[in-house]
Design goal:
By secondary structure, the protein is mainly beta. Helices cover about 10% and strands about 35% of the residues. It has three domains: about 5-130, Immunoglobulin-like (Sandwich), CATH 2.60.40; about 135-235, no CATH class; about 260-454, no CATH class.
Length: about 450
């Protein structure tokens, strides 16, 4: 099994005041920055020697805390011996200049420092650790396969882009891949005595591949009574994950019924479900930070960046505190996320206004003695208008919304409405004292998302 080996490469930036001239600021307006870049190598060859990595062609970028690019060294070998920074808050990113979706012998490294503050006449040392940002995959064949089958090859494909690596017969190299869902295909062929062949193809997928992890695809096959029996397992880096392949791959939701938890295969998150009338809803707000195809959604924390100038997809957590508020409030998305592509997992969809109206109509016609809002609200979190009875298990919490800041938490909640032929802009549905469809909104506001079963 591969071991982790860390190598420290010291790269020094001394941020000092430029030589004083009458037209430049006084030295007290500048701070001093010492930047150290290290690399984490995640594979060690059998001979015990680790691979040396040349950082001369790395790209190193200094950003202001709000994400504004301040200074770039590309390649790093062009960086001057000394550089000065005005006082303020910053962070630094460093990465190698060789990112591709799939390739042999092409590791990609990336690192980001924590935010730090440079004060007047302060000397600060900042460490950046650039780690392997790829997923690695190797295909290994047992002695049974090598001694019995005349042909054994495999392919690994990046699902989002179609980039593919072909593992030829006897190929022992590890492939480096973008950390995006991967599809695996193994082909074995046995030539019978009469010259005809038995060909079988089996597939697997890695829905949430992790960086700095080697996935060993171990293939074993035997011949019994004229039939080919295949057993394929996946060894995930340091922890073993077994995936058994036969004529059908495993599905965590294969035996799911309404009312049971649904596993979102993109990130393994489990969501409660509830059947209300002819509809099945998730009874939790969505927490996904990437689309089902693996495309990430940027997280934006700074209020000044979020509103009102941001015009690209973004999400955030309540008060930027994921650990405390991820449940039950879920993620807050701007409408650019919704407009870009479907956000709910496969088999589910963003509710249209018609879906919301069908939910409201069912509760009204079901004879619930209170209001629709009371029936759908959770029994906690509502500071105003009282908590609900949660009569149908919908569990709506008072999540408020994000404008320039988070507001109305404890008072109301809104969910985005999926665009359709009539509602083509940023519309929402929500609860204050009661449930009601809400009108036209604005792209930049952060609202929650519920999913309804197809």
């Amino acid at each position: 099994m591969n071991t982790i080996k860390a190598i420290l490469l010291s790269l020094l930036f001394l941020a000092a005041a430029c030589q004083q001239q009458s037209e430049t600021p006084e030295p007290l307006d500048y701070g001093y920055l010492s930047l150290n870049l290290s690399l984490t190598i995640t594979s060690e060859p059998a001979n015990g020697r680790t691979l040396a990595v040349n950082t001369d062609d790395f790209r190193v970028t200094i950003f202001a805390a709000d994400g504004t690019e301040v200074m770039v060294f590309d390649p790093f070998s062009t960086a001057p011996a000394e550089v000065s920074l005005p006082t303020g808050e910053y962070y630094v990113e460093a990465h190698s200049n060789n990112m591709v979706d799939a390739a042999f012998e092409n590791p990609y490294y990336f690192g980001r420092s924590d935010n730090f503050t440079i004060d007047k006449e302060e000397l600060k040392s900042i460490d950046i650790e650039a780690e392997l940002a790829n997923t690695k995959v190797a295909i290994n064949y047992s002695a049974n396969v090598v001694n019995t089958f005349h042909s054994y090859t495999g392919t690994v494909t990046v699902a989002s882009s179609g980039a593919i690596l072909f593992y030829a017969q006897g190929e022992t190299r590890e492939g480096y891949f973008l950390t995006s869902p991967l599809d695996i295909e193994v082909n074995l062929s046995y030539t019978k005595l009469d010259g005809t062949t038995i060909d079988r193809t089996f597939t697997a997928s890695i829905a949430d591949p992790q960086p700095r992890t080697l996935y060993n695809i171990n293939v074993d096959a035997t011949l019994e009574d004229g039939k080919v029996v295949f057993n394929i397992t996946v060894d995930e880096g340091f922890d073993i994950v077994d995936i058994d392949l036969g004529d059908a791959a495993g599905n965590p939701n294969a035996n799911w019924t309404p009312g049971e938890e649904w596993i979102d295969e993109r990130d393994g998150e489990a969501y409660g479900t509830v059947e209300i009338g002819s509809q099945v809803w998730m009874n939790e707000n969505l927490r996904a930070v990437a689309y089902p195809d693996g495309e990430p959604i940027p997280e934006v924390q700074a209020d000044a960046v979020w509103w009102p100038s941001l015009n690209t997809p973004a999400y955030s957590w309540l008060y930027n505190d994921k650990a405390t508020y991820e449940r039950p409030y879920g993620a807050y998305y701007n409408y650019y996320v919704i407009e870009h592509k479907e956000l709910c997992p496969s088999g589910w969809h963003m509710p249209t206004m018609q879906d919301w109206e069908e939910l409201e109509s069912f509760v009204v016609n079901d004879g619930y003695p209170g209001s629709v809002g009371e029936a759908l609200k959770a029994t906690y979190s509502w500071a105003n208008d009282n908590n609900g009875t949660n009569a149908y298990g919908f569990s709506a919490v008072a999540a408020g919304a994000r404008w320039t800041v988070f507001d109305y938490v404890g008072e109301l909640t809104y969910w985005w409405v999926a665009p359709d032929t009539y509602y083509t802009g940023p519309y929402s549905s929500g609860i204050t004292a009661n449930f009601f469809p809400w009108g036209d909104y604005t792209y930049g506001v952060g609202l929650n998302v519920r999913c309804v079963k197809e």
